[in-house]
Design brief:
The strands form 3 sheets. Strands 6-7-8-3-9-10 form a 6-stranded mixed sheet, sandwiched between helices. A 4-stranded antiparallel sheet has the order 2-1-4-5. Strands 11-12 form a two-stranded antiparallel sheet. Helix 4 crosses helix 5. Strand 11 and strand 12 form a beta hairpin. The chain has 261 residues and is an alpha/beta fold. The longest helix has 16 residues. It has 2 domains: 224 residues, P-loop containing nucleotide triphosphate hydrolases (Rossmann fold); 35 residues, no CATH class. Part of the ABC transporter complex HmuTUV involved in hemin import. Responsible for energy coupling to the transport system. Belongs to the ABC transporter superfamily. Keywords: ATP-binding, Nucleotide-binding, Translocase, Transport. InterPro entries: AAA+_ATPase, ABC_transporter-like_ATP-bd, ABC_transporter-like_CS, P-loop_NTPase. Pfam families: ABC_tran.
Length: 261
Amino acid sequence: MVALSADRLSVRRARRVVVDDVSFAAEGGALIGIVGPNGAGKSTLVQALLGLVPATGAILLDGVPLAERSRREIAQTVAYLPQGQSLHWPLSVERLVALGRLPHLAPLSRISRDDHAAIARAMVAADVTTLAARVATEISGGERARVLLARALAVEAPALIVDEPLASLDPAHQIAVMDILRAQAARGVLVIAVLHDLGLAARYCDRILVLDAGRLVADGAPSAVLTPARLRETYGVRAWFGSIEGVPVVVPLTRDSAQGD
């Protein structure tokens, strides 16, 4: 199984520390959520883990410093779905999903039978097979989100990092995407997901990292991390905690007046 770790990872942007001395280690077979308020550094953290932004500290991928890995090796090992992607080229949905196979293709090579099979599996998993012939720039925002997830799944990498994969999705497809991520983890994939829905994070994640002002302020099982005190301190909200049929439920209720404006 793949292993990914960060040791005292920090990122500065425009003289401001965006990620501040973050350390953690993770292995395949887990669904790990990264949560925190807006501007906490969540997206910057996952970009740093992929070597996409300059950072200090150490990042190891399967025990090898990330800087010693080629971009091709990283792309084959860690599939990435960034947030808020725009589409500019009128590709068909199937061709867009096929781009997920690029890390495995040699220059000027053609897509193989195995590649086509991986593309088909990804489209089935993301429930976009009926969109295959549609032009990707002409589909809805929710459909586009699922198609882009399919592109990431088509890599069939041992690790998958997704940044706000539930944006633009209706509740049914939010649950479907979390089911997909859960299934990937069950297959041994290391899944790291930046999430805003604390209820879904509590329900699906094996482990949650909480970022606040760039610092890792909590790391552990959902029940240990998503507590009334932590939500008041990190988000400035009061929440209801409970369970329905054994499923944990977290519902933010109001801003915590003790936090002030």
